[in-house]
Amino acid sequence: MSKIKAVFFDQDGVIIDTERDGHRVAFNETFKHFGYDFEWDVDYYHELLQVAGGKERMKHHLKTKGFGEGVEIADEDVDEHIKAMHKHKTAVFVELIETGKLPLRPGVKRLMQEVNDAGLLLGICTTSNEKAAQAVVNGLLKEIKFEFVLAGDIVDNKKPDPEIYNLALSKSGFAPDECIVVEDSRNGVLAARAAGLNIVATTNIYTASEDLSDANIKVTCLGDDVSDGCELKAGGEGIDYDGVLHLEQLMAYFG
Fold it and tell me: In which order are the strands placed within the sheet that holds 232-235?
């Protein structure tokens, strides 16, 4: 087997628990700002997460439920209107990050630092807006060195299409079996599997019940300390796991 040379991280739900208390909150504030009288509750937003991309989720909602009684948006105006809404939503989301209301998930920064210390390539591959991704990188993770941050509309097809991971492979110059990806959702895991990558799935409130069987390792979080209560749920045979998943263990397991 090949030696591991790179680690790619998804952002939302992996680096920070953004979905329930970040993106959902920002979407709802945006709907209110634009004068719409509806909100996305926790359960409904879980359904929407099966649609990759924020603009795509709003278009899906518009098509299936509408934006309220009597609200009509001409077909030729939908894209620009959704784009304007998403721009506002991103600003609200970035403010949540910059004000520290969305902390890093346990073990993320530690594992990234281990990747830096080992001299491996480190990248982010996310469907999240590029401005939001850069806010995380330049704020909460400013001490970490990234080779690249692939975000937003840099690819035409969102996860579960493997396009973003194929782009990461092209930029890195490495073979799929030389790379590890950290994901959290079924769409993300399917994209990584289609690209042939080694996969660690770290679950959250929205993805704990999803089918992540295509991941090689499934944990509840990466862990900074045993007190974080992280659990190994599947895979990882032979890893001496104590609630903290280290790069050295992953390199041995995949390499």
Answer: 148-150, 121-125, 6-9, 179-183, 198-202, 217-219, 232-235
The whole-number pLDDT of residue 129 equals 82
Amino acid at 185: S
Q: Find the helix or strand (DSSP H, E) in which 60 lies.
A: helix 54-64
Residues near 214 by Cβ (< 8 Å), separated by ≥ 6? 189, 190, 192, 193, 199
Sorted by where each starts, the structural domains of the chain and their CATH numbers stand as 6-17+103-254 (3.40.50.1000), 19-98 (1.10.150.240)
What's this model's pTM, rounded to 2 decimal places? Answer: 0.84
> Annotated active-site positions, please?
10, 12
Res 211 pLDDT > 80: yes
Gap between the terminal Cα atoms of the chain = 6
What number of CA atoms fall less than 13 Å from residue 128's CA on the CB side? 30
- 122 by DSSP, 3-state: which? strand
Ramachandran sector of residue 175 (left: φ over 0; alpha: ψ -120 to 50; beta: rest):
beta
